[in-house]
Amino acid sequence: MSIVLLVIMKKNKSTYDRTTANPKRKANIEKEYQEPLLTELLLAAMAKDNVSVRELAKEAGVSPTIIQELKTGKRANITLSTFNRVLNAIGYQIAIEPVSRK
């Protein structure tokens, strides 16, 4: 007589999967993930073009304080106009695309 042993292995969930199982937490995480994107874009563009905070501020027509706060992530809310001027100064533009409605 032979015995067959069947082992079912449970797939371990990642930390992200466990954390985002709660819809409210997932929404907060996704919101927070979007916020540093401008900072990362700004840092990469400034490094690539070797542009200082003062130079970028002058080109964008904004205060160096605004650029420094964007660079460090301390400034999260800026006007669309300021956002557009900073993006244009580093060689980017805003694109508006339609999204599907639920």
Q: How is this structure best summarized?
A:
This protein is mainly alpha-helical. Helices cover 57% and strands 0% of the residues. The chain starts with 14 loop residues before the first helix and ends in a 13-residue tail after the last helix.
Task: Lay out the secondary structure.
Elements: H1 15-19, H2 23-34, H3 36-49, H4 53-60, H5 64-72, H6 80-89
Helix pairs in contact: 4-5, 4-6
What does the overall shape look like? elongated
Total helical segments: 6
Low-pLDDT regions = none
Residues in helices, as a percent range:
55-70%
Overall number of strands:
0
Biggest sheet overview: none
Oligomer: single chain
Terminus-to-terminus distance: 59 Å
Strand content range: under 5%
What does this structure look like?
There is one protein chain. The protein is mainly alpha-helical. The protein is 57% helix and 0% strand. The protein has six helices and no strands. It has helices spanning 15-19, 23-34, 36-49, 53-60, 64-72, 80-89. Helix 4 crosses helix 6 (80-89). The termini are far apart. The mean pLDDT is 82.
Q: What keyword list fits this structure?
A:
single chain, 102 residues, mainly alpha, 6 helices
